[in-house]
Amino acid sequence: VEIPGILSIAIFLPLISAVIVAVFLNGKTARGFALVASIVELVITGYIFIAHKQYDMSEKLTTWFPESFPVQYFLSIDGISAPLILLTGLLGIVSIFASWNVSERTKEHFMWLLALQGVVVGVFTSMDFLLFFLFWELELIPMFFLISIWGTGRKEYSAMKFLIFTILGSAFMLIGILVIFAGTGTFDMTKISEALPSSNLIMPVGILFLFMSIGFAVKLPVFPLHTWLPDAHTDAPTAASVMLAGVLLKMGGYGLLRVSAGMFPDQLEKYAWVLALLGVINIIYGAAITIRQTDLKRLIAYSSVSHMGFVLLGLSAMGGGITSLAMTGAALQMFTHGTITGLLFLTIGFIYERTHTRHIPDLGGLARRMPVFTVSFVVAGLASLGLPGTSGFVSEITIFLGAFPAFKLATIIAAFGVVLTAAYILWMIQRSMFGPERERFAQIGDATVVQVIPIGLLIVSIIGVGIYPAFVSNVFTEGIEVMLNMPGAN
């Protein structure tokens, strides 16, 4: 069945639900309503993921702005964004379950979570550059409040740091968007790659490419622009950590793929070695710092820096090698990292609710008391280090196979990063879950039903994609090949 306006529904259902929560509901009902809204949203995103090939889901309102200023309300979807929208729907539900026990200012918490979901879908579906930028910036607001109100530790500092870093990155991006508009006369992202080569730009195209990429690199995050991430993650509430790692970092990867690679393929090929180098630095540096962490959330935050390095390595292979394979690997890494890290943060959040500590040396011996959390922690950990049979393996091996012909040395060094990953993940699991039982954890209970559901959802997606990756990777490949064959792409 074709549903007209489905992309608008996917954006505005969570946004309108957020308004309803804020205006009409109180704590408990807000929670239930938010859950229902998220379930509907997951169904919608699932439908978009499955049906986007059969129907043209594009939507255009050209009369949105006066003629002199050609901004359109233009939404579309392809193989690159479809899986990311599905990921947003999946983690949206997970984040609602993760917040089930939030007791202070409950309704506001769910309002911001719903708003965040809608805005992120907006980022992934916008095909008008200014609309894209609007959603890109709007995403900051819910995240800022989620961290600064419901966080722990130095939450205001971390929220501000997140805000300032992202806004500085976005400033470069906005300049880039305006330069592109000045040169091509359009904000239509589907036309820009054709129009760019023949347009006269007011700055060298290399610098333009750099400006756009900086905006995305802050989000991904790329060393040395990554320092906001460990703070934001460590102090964020569980739901915000899940969304931050699961979806917001993917906005950076999506931007690099859609804009830096899609609109500036020549520049990407020229500077591919820089991307490969930065990717390797991310992987090794991220892993090396992760090994020294004793706070569970900080550890996973630094591991995200490491894992996002693989995305850079995959993108760098556009300059040579098996292009679409490595890029599919990069896109797949974004998807799988979302589910795996989402599960890690979710489990850590639940364990923290029970034990009130995230300090690894203080934990230990929890396996007997918490079999469900232990299973979920072990599954997520093994997926994170790339165990065959989990989705983490598929994405990393795809990147290695695709990038090796282009950058042999970088790929070999990156493979050592996997060894480091195995070291810190196994160390973390061993120290926090196994070992002798602790006296003070004697009375601790295991997962409730509300906690088993999101854990189950994520485990199924991790193992499902691990066993049958084509379900997601074929969609990505198709989108990437369309993009690589676009006029003006080579």
Describe this structure in words.
The protein has 490 residues and is an all-alpha fold. It is globular and about 70 Å long. It has a domain at 271-484. The protein starts with 5 loop residues before the first helix and ends in a 6-residue tail after the last helix. The model has no long low-confidence stretch (mean pLDDT 90). It contains 20 helices and 2 strands. The chain has a two-stranded antiparallel sheet with strand order 1-2. Helix 13 runs parallel beside helix 18. It is found in: Membrane. GO terms for molecular function: NADH dehydrogenase (ubiquinone) activity; NADH dehydrogenase activity; ubiquinone binding. Its main location: membrane.
Low-confidence stretches: none
Helix content: over 70%
Overall mean pLDDT? 90
Number of strands: 2
Order of helices and strands: HHEEHHHHHHHHHHHHHHHHHH
Strand order of the largest sheet: 1-2
Determine the N-to-C terminus distance. 37 Å
Task: Determine the number of helices (DSSP H or I, runs of at least 4 residues).
Answer: 20
Label the structural class: mainly alpha
| Morphology call | globular
The biggest beta sheet, please? 2 strands, antiparallel
Radius of gyration, in angstroms, nearest whole number:
21 Å
Strand content: under 5%
